[in-house]
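explain this:

___
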Amino acid sequence: MALYPLRVPQIRYRGRARGVDRMRKIAELHKVAERIVDHINSEMEQSPADQRRIFSYAGVAYTLKVELKDVEAVLGELGGGGNGIRVDRP
């Protein structure tokens, strides 16, 4: 369970300076994560207070046209389960 508004923790690369590919992948994942969180937060803004919503990974991936594995990685870190994430609005 996650609480509205969602925030994405930033991943810092602490490897060797030659890890350019790894740094590029992390930067791409951050861009996707921001899109995902912005989408869910905008959906939650439209819902009334004290409401709980469930977002499936596949539904978010289809809506935003991103890969399912990226959605699972981002929302799994924020407290998601096997198929989706429940977001509560206090």
Notes: The mean pLDDT is 87.
